[in-house]
Each structure stands twice: as C-alpha cells, then as structure tokens.
Amino acid sequence: MIQKFVNIQFFYLLVFTLTFGILLYDLVGFDYTDEFCALFLFILFGFYVLKNPEWPINKAFGVTILIFIFYLIYSVCIESNAKKAIISDFLIQIKPYLAFFCVYSLMPAFSANQKAILRIIVGLFAIFLLLIGVSNSLVGDVIRPVMGHHAYFAAAVVSCALCFLFVSNFDTKSKILYMVILSIGLFSTRSKFYGFFILNLAFLCYFTKIERFHLDKKSVFFLFVVLGVMMIVVWEKINLYFVQSLNSDNEKDLIARFALYVTSFEIFKDYIPFGSGFASFATFSSGEYYSDIYVKYGIENVWGLSKQFHSYIADTYYPSLAQFGVVGVGLYISFWIYIIRKAYGYFRISHNIKLFLLVLLIVCYFVIESTTDSTYTTHRGFFVMMILGLVISNMKQETMNN
Questions:
Q1: Burial class of residue 31 (count of CB atoms within 10 Å of its CB; 0-12, 13-18, 19+)
Q2: pLDDT given at position 139
Q3: Over the stretch 200-215, which tens digit does the pLDDT of each residue have?
Q4: Please, what is the Cα angle at 3 between 156 and 35, to 5 degrees?
Q5: Rg of the chain, C-alpha, whole Å
Q6: Residue 45 CB: number of other CB atoms within 10 A?
Q7: pTM for this one?
Q8: In whole angstroms, what is the distance from residue 24 CA to residue 39 CA?
Q9: Which of 336, 380, 334, 383 lies closest to 360 in space, CA to CA?
Q10: Angle (CA) 65 67 68, round 5°
C-alpha cells in the first residue's frame, strides 16, 4: 500500500520537476524550484522509511551523509568562509546525492498508464523545444530569453530524451524517436552537446545486443573510434582550454574557466588532503559570500571572478573539487564506480540493456558536462540524478523479481 502511494507521489514530483525545474525554470523565475523539489523528495523518503518496518536506508547513502557532515565540520573549523556560506554550499553540494539515493531507496515504479502519460508530456515538451530551436535559427536569439541560456536549452532536451527512453519499449521506432528528440539539442550549438549526441548515436547503434556488453577487442576498438570522433568534434574547445595559452584576445568567460582550472591545482597542492572547504572555491556560495581564496591566489581581478562581478565563478564543476582535496576527488570517483558496478551487477542478472545503457549515458553526460559547467549541482543535475536513481532502482526491482 505504501509503495503504491510512493509511486503516485513520485510520478507527480518527476513531472513537476521536469516542467518547472527544467523546462520553465527560467520563465517562472523561481530560483529555488529544485530546492523545493529536493525538500519534498526528502520528506517522501522520510515518510517511506518511517512507515516501512525494515527501515530501508541505503548504507552508501548513510556513508555519503557522514562524509558531508565531516566536511561541514572541517570547513567550519578551518573557517573556509562565513558559516552561512558554508551551510549554503553544503546544501548545494549534497543535493545531487540526495536526489539519487532518495529515489533509489524509494524504488518507485510507473504503471503502463503513467508511462503513456509521461510519453505524451515529453512529446509535447519536445515540440515546444523544437519550436524554440527553429525560431532561434530563423529569427535570432530566442533560446536565451525563453530558456535563460543555450546550455539550459540543451539540458532540457537531454532531460526530455532520457525520460522518453526510460518509458519507451526500446524497439527500433523508440530508438529513432529518442534520437529525433535528442537532435533538437543541436540547435543549442554547444560543442559538449555535439559530443554527447555522437556518443548516444554510437551506443544505440552498437550496444543494443547483450553479447556486445563485453570488454573484448572489438568493443575496445569501437570505443576508441567513438572517443576519437568526439575529440574531433570538441577539439576547438579542448585546444582552447588545455592546449593554448590564453590571452586577452580570447573570450573572457574562457579566461575565467582557465584561471579556475589552473588555480584548483594549486589549491589541491596547498590544502592536502581535505581541500579548502565548503564555499571556498569555484562554487556559487564562494562567489555570493566572496571567498578569500580568490585574493590569496591572485585571481580576484579576472573578469567574472571578481567580488563585484562573479558570474563565472560557478561556471564549471571539476575545479570545485579542490574544496574537498585529493580525498574528495577519490570519493567522487568512488561514487561513480559504485554506480557503474551496482548497475552492471543488476544487468548481469536482469539483462535489461535499455536500463544499463541509460546508466552509462547519464554517467557520460556528467563527465562531459562537468568540464565547463556546474550542471551536477544545479537544478539540471538534480533532475538527471533523479532519473539515475529511478533507472537503477528499476534494475534492482527486476533483479529481485528474477
């Protein structure tokens, strides 16, 4: 009875988050939509745990919470920033893990009717996004005033596409429709999206048979070819970020990102092993409550990283790992290893290619996005992490039923 209640409430929450936390996020103008959704999700999780005599709390979730509490105490002790800044960053950084583990623990399942409704909703949203994309190409910049940013538009397309693939039958028609929906994101003109699109196309064409999910020579060669094609597509940005020596002739936002990457390595070295602490570097809170780190490392005058104008401080994710040090990097990598191992373990029993492929695509999505965007800790990342929790919990259910 309680599981049925959870299934219904979670379905409503997922649709609400997709609508107001992704598609209409900027139009509505309410910046705390994802926090509101996170709170509701946590309340639903708490209700589920209290009503369940077995108290189904995932051990990895408990360990993750303890790790974050440790870093919270550590940050307060070293005074990485003002206490309200530390707490703010703590809540932002834990949000994606909250999204995944709460959904994974709830183990929601959709009925055939709910899946049909979600397909219709995604179809309507895809048409809406297509109209925006076409209008943007024909009459000028329409994406920015409607979606807020081209990256947000691309993220909305990815979110809709992932939802569709999850509720699809994974037949040839479904795969084609998935790629059609995903192709709308090409209007974003983001090189990262081009790379992700190629990855999707390659995976759907190749990894659709169980026997191909093996690390043999043929699969390794295929992956190297795909990686090579992706590198060609995004080489301009890779060359700009990591090869060229940036100068004043380059775009200012790229200089800010480059400065964050370079400085992060210095912070890793100087703050061994636990990093500079919450709200200290490359996060929203470190800019809102301006951190002394930027002055200490001499980047306070870089365009987009100054106290007066800090819009580009949280414009990428990987440099923010300097807040957690080398230990934090190890823990971050361990989390994704945990996700892949858990999914692969379920896949070996259930043989559900669609769900395992979804896990791989989501992992790749965050790997790509985190290079030049803080998607992981934003409203966009929150929704995709909800999808990830939903996918792996469904894999677990299938394993239990076998």
A1: exposed
A2: 87
A3: 988 887 766 655 556 5
A4: 40
A5: 21
A6: 22
A7: 0.92
A8: 19
A9: 336
A10: 65
